[in-house]
Amino acid sequence: MGLPPLGPVPxxxxxxxxxxxxxxxxxxxxxxxxxLSALGLSPGRNVQVLRRAWWSGPLHVRVGMTELMLRRSDAxxxxxxxxxxxx
Amino acid sequence: MSPxxxxxxxxxxxxxxxxxxxxxxxxxxxxALLGMPNTGKSTFFTRLTGAHAQIGNWPGLTVDLMQAQxxxxxxxALVVDLPGLYDLRxxxxxxxxxxxxxESTRLDLVLVILNASQIxxxxxxxxxxxxxxxxxxxxxxxxxxxxxxxxxxDHGALSRExxxxxxxxxxxxxxxxxxxxxxxxxxxxxxxxxxxxxxxxxFLLDDLALDAALAPLLAAAVRLPExxxxxxxxxxxxxxxxxxxxxxxxxxxxxxxxxGIYALGVPLQLGLAHGLERVGTELIRPLLxxxxxxxxxxxxxxxxxxxxxxxxxxxVIFxxxxxxxxxxxxxxxxxxxxxxxxxxxRLGLDGRSFVLSLMGFxxxxxxxxxxxVMRSSGLRLLSMLVIPFSLCSARLNVFLFMSAALFAPxxxxxxxxxxxxxxxxxxxxxxxxxxxxxxxxEPLVLELPPxxxxxxxxxxxxxxxxxxxxxxxxxRFIILGVVAIWLMNNLPMGVAPAxxxxxxxxxxxxxxxxxxxxxxxxxxxxALLFGFIAKEIVLGGLAVIxxxxxxxxLGQALAQDLDWAQAYSFMIFTLLYTPCLSTVAxxxxxxxxxxxxxxxxxxxxxxxxVSSFVFYQAVLWFRG
Lengths: 87, 624
Hints:
The structure holds two protein chains of two kinds. Chain A has one domain: Ferrous iron transport protein A (FeoA) (SH3 type barrels, Roll). Chain A contains two helices and five strands; from the N terminus they run βαβββαβ. In chain A, strands 4-3-2-1-5 form a five-stranded antiparallel beta sheet. In chain A, strand 3 and strand 4 form a beta hairpin. The longest helix of chain A is centred in the middle third of the chain and has 9 residues. Chain A starts with 19 loop residues before the first strand and ends in a 5-residue tail after the last strand. Chain B is an alpha/beta fold. Chain B has two domains: 221 residues, P-loop containing nucleotide triphosphate hydrolases (Rossmann fold, 3-Layer(aba) Sandwich); 358 residues, no CATH class. In chain B, 62% of the residues lie in helices and 8% in strands. Chain B has a seven-stranded mixed beta sheet, sandwiched between helices. A two-stranded antiparallel sheet of chain B has the order 7-9. In chain B, a hairpin with a 2-residue loop joins strand 3 and strand 4. In chain B, helix 27 runs antiparallel to helix 28. Chain B is elongated and about 80 Å long. Classes of the chains: A alpha+beta, B alpha/beta. The interface between A and B is large, with 32 and 45 residues.
């Protein structure tokens, strides 16, 4: 990958379970960015973490009509603006 | 794959050659199915093509695709099911393959199949196909599910906005499929010239243009619910993916599944074996009476009985794939990947490796082929090193027989379960030892589809295909192995079959210094030698070696010759060493690395010997 993790911006990896957020940017290699975008994880989309797997396992995420899993290390590449009120 | 076409499909530049070609010489229309993974594309393909489908080599591509020849609108047509992909701009193996295909083939029609409940993002693929100028027909699959989840789609408006025909279908239940077929035939009968795109990369839209085109479409034709009204999936996930309950429930489900398979499969297997035995003695033996004894013995005791022994366990394989299909199509298998990824990541693998290893419990060969979904070569090789330790159905057959012959019924189940545990331990140890040598930083992003219950017809169809596939792949090995083992046991002529004077007896004796310390006698050595070709022939081989064709009497002969520690040591060795020549062949062709393949074979032999040695010597030591 070679890209540094995002700095002080909150990322999808830290988003509290159940709290919606809006994707600000995705800082990953081109291949991963494209795959994430095809699955719906692209800037401007609303996203929600449904649960985290045991033992620092992957996140279960909902974006639009799609549910998917991704690892915390990859989720840490997605900058998030958490929504203030639960929608 | 023939060596003549072994070049990389993506690097092949065919356009110049095909440019002058009009309709293919055979006059067949060409139709391709395009769609993202998990859209039910293959289910629709089966609906459309019925029994005509077969795996075949598409001219110019090195990968086998599902294709079928059929009549559409009174004209011959060739329909091909392309691999599922997310993005026509992507660079995964499948994405390159599909792009290469679109570049090199004139298509009369492209059927783009979408999962209707994910229309919000899957329309991207339609827009990409349209921007390439392909003749597209859009099929919204799982229309029933989308309605149930609360989506409203105005098909007329969508079709108008897109400028393409759009039809709702349910490939699973067949709703709308007749209309879809009629629309396909109507499109094919109007004589538009087939389309092909010369340079897909140039015409594909970028993200901004896609978003800009997508928004008005969705606004005009689709009303999305606030959230998916799928309460069943949400409730099931709350239990099945619960941190504490999830894993125990998963292993319980697997345990029950295997128990069910044996409870049904073993009586079926014994019944079939008994039937084949009667056919052999009452019909075939009298027919062979006139032949010279050596030839008659070869045909009856070598060929017929060997093949019969293997055929008898096809019901178990069928049941296994039936259950595996249920687990996979229901969406539970990707949940298994979710649950196990935390552990697998620490082993240098990922949740997909775990799922593939589970598939390996049916047959290692398709599981090894499945590692194609991984792009990092380190991850692929490590997965390929681990998968062959999955206790496949062929090995299971040997274990079922031996545990029934040498252990009481209640111990038998424990023996089998302990071998499954050992299979997991061998995988974990192997991954932990070698993860440093095969490192990977491949990201893992997987869809978790809603839970679905596949129809009985879908499950049967799939299990039947798998059994046919298995038989197709293994029969040559099986016949070859059975013949070889019989010849080794009966040559030189004039010696008593399978005695110390035959070729096999001599080989067994020669290997004794190596195998006696793990409790394996010369007769079992011969069985192991042929198990290298395929585990399917181990039992047939034992039947010949012990000159007992009847399964019951063979069991008794084994019980007389071996004690339980020898039998269990033999099972450990059988579990861990090379599964069969097919897996070696697949590993070689998939890794394109002979040294890696040799290493994988040697490592499994070493692990098998050491494990059997530790077990057998420990038992001897306890006995004093």
